[in-house]
Write a structure and sequence with these properties.
alpha/beta; Rossmann fold; nine-stranded mixed sheet; 19% strand; 22 strands
Length: 489
């Protein structure tokens, strides 16, 4: 069987590390050449492999066929550079183009072939990546036992990947969906087998945060030191149709975990929040606002409780990127709610790196937001994706406006009018000065929500009553939408 010829773009440490791995394994293909822009390397050999260049002239000395592939191994490349290199390779005739993402753990250590992936439209969005010295940021987790709730989700799974580089003693992958936990456990073990990160023990934990006795038991049993709480229901229109379950899971599940962490004496608790908690109109946003308050009232002595709030992440399950991709590949139309709708975006690796750093440098009872840059117009995002897949917007792939869905805003904000952003010594991490919400009536608020979410013999008519739920939410959070025709159940 004939092996693929692999041309590695970039002859730096990352490219050489990838080449060494391909040579060592022997079955993955043959490194035909490095392609580099450095005049000092062009015309030489590295690892017995010739170095050609510059990249812009690749079509002059190379005519790739079906068995040739390109691998971009420049993890420091920004969006503009990556776009330019991809265009050159595509024009030269490469059908298969992979790249090594600019992840912090790659910049900190060795690069591995398993970390490469196919290029996607989201890799060409107009924002430069944020680089974090991950190993240094994770020093506070060395030798610790770390629990990630929602470990099978977009942020939870990426935190788990990056935590491999942190020297944690154990990684507990907590979730109530066995398939997603199985997938991330298997992926992490394969990464470890391929030499990525350190040899933390990986432990899957299937359970339910709404079972308070189980949560107390499992935290005591696992002897965890740090919790990153990512688990939540997140899909806004879905939760508008199931508002009681949104509050039950996101609010009471968080309260159970906070109580168990507090009782168990764990050193750190980091809660993942969202810009939809700012002046929320949706039940999801309201659930995260309440959960923020549950977390921020705790923490003293040796225990630190903190919140990290940020906007959308690119490519997460249920987000706009996978939806647009599906619509484009089936020939359209691409649906957008409004021509002027905007959102803050950050890549999943960037957000996760900053969450991990915040967990180490953050103060207790403090709310932080991540610097998301400027908001992006969804229309511009859709047009760029359409072009990436080789079509013309409106001409070949129609764009259709469908109106805002229940619980959606035209624009999001990262902080409320009564919250004051303050720079920290850490770039891209912003501290918010704020006062407690709900005028000290959080417990009263929770007591009123309780019989709606959990059956109470004394108030059976309240159980699962979504109209009652919306009334209570609207009373404490006036921005929450209250429909005149809101059904009871």
């Amino acid at each position: 069987m004939k092996k693929n010829n692999i041309y590695i773009i970039g002859a730096g440490f990352a490219g050489q590390a990838i080449a060494e791995e391909i040579i060592e394994k022997g079955i993955l293909g043959k490194v035909a050449a490095f392609i580099d822009d450095d005049p000092g390397k062009i015309g030489t050999t590295l690892l017995g492999i010739p170095v050609y260049g510059p990249v812009r002239n690749i079509s002059r000395f190379l005519k790739p066929g079906p068995l040739e592939e390109a691998l971009i191994a420049i993890p420091s490349a920004n969006q503009e550079q990556l776009t330019k290199i991809h265009r050159i390779l595509h024009t030269a005739g490469f059908e298969k183009i992979r790249f090594l993402p600019g992840l912090s753990q790659i910049l900190d250590g060795d690069a591995h072939l398993i970390q490469t992936r196919e290029l996607d439209a989201q890799d060409f969005l107009p924002r430069d990546p944020i680089v974090i010295a991950l190993k240094k940021s994770l020093a506070y987790l060395r030798g610790k036992r770390v629990l990630i709730t929602g470990a099978g989700g977009s942020i939870g799974s990426e935190l788990s990947r990056q935590l491999l580089s942190g020297g944690a003693q154990r990684l507990y992958l907590f979730g109530h969906g066995e398939n997603s936990i199985y997938e991330i456990e298997r992926e992490l073990k394969i990464l470890q087998e391929e030499g990525v990160g350190e040899k933390a023990t990986i432990v899957p934990v299937i359970g339910e945060l709404l079972d308070i006795e189980f949560v107390r038991f499992i935290l005591k049993r696992l002897k965890a030191d740090v919790v990153f709480h990512c688990a939540a229901y997140k899909h806004v229109p879905m939760l508008e149709a199931n508002p009681v379950e949104a509050i039950k899971n996101n609010v009471f599940g968080t309260r159970n975990l906070v109580r168990a962490v507090k009782q168990g004496g764990l050193s750190r608790f980091v809660f993942i929040s969202t810009d939809k908690a700012v002046e929320p109109v949706s039940v999801y946003g309201a659930s995260k606002m309440i959960a923020e308050e549950i977390v921020l009232r705790e923490g003293n002595g040796n225990q630190k409780f903190m919140v990290v709030r940020f906007g959308n992440v690119l490519g997460s399950r249920g987000s706009i990127i996978p939806l647009l991709r599906t619509q484009i590949l089936k020939g359209g139309p691409v649906t957008i709610t409004h021509p002027d709708i905007t959102r803050f975006f950050m890549t999943i690796p960037e957000a996760s790196s900053l969450v991990l750093k915040t967990g180490g440098v953050g103060e207790s009872r403090t709310l932080y937001i991540l610097d998301m840059g400027d908001p992006l117009k969804i229309r511009a995002l859709a047009e760029q994706m359409i072009r990436f897949y080789g079509f013309k917007p409106d001409n070949e792939i129609p764009v259709k406006y469908i109106g805002l869905r229940p619980g959606e805003k035209l624009k999001e904000k990262l902080w409320c009018p009564d919250e004051t952003p303050v720079s920290t010594e850490h770039p891209h991490i912003i501290k918010l000065l704020r006062n407690p919400r709900f005028n000290g009536h959080l417990e009263q608020f929770m007591d009123r929500l309780q019989p709606v979410c959990f059956f109470d013999r004394d108030r059976p008519d309240d159980y699962r009553n979504r109209r009652k739920l919306k009334q209570i939410l609207n009373e404490y959070i006036p921005t929450v939408c209250m429909q005149a025709d809101e059904p009871e159940y």
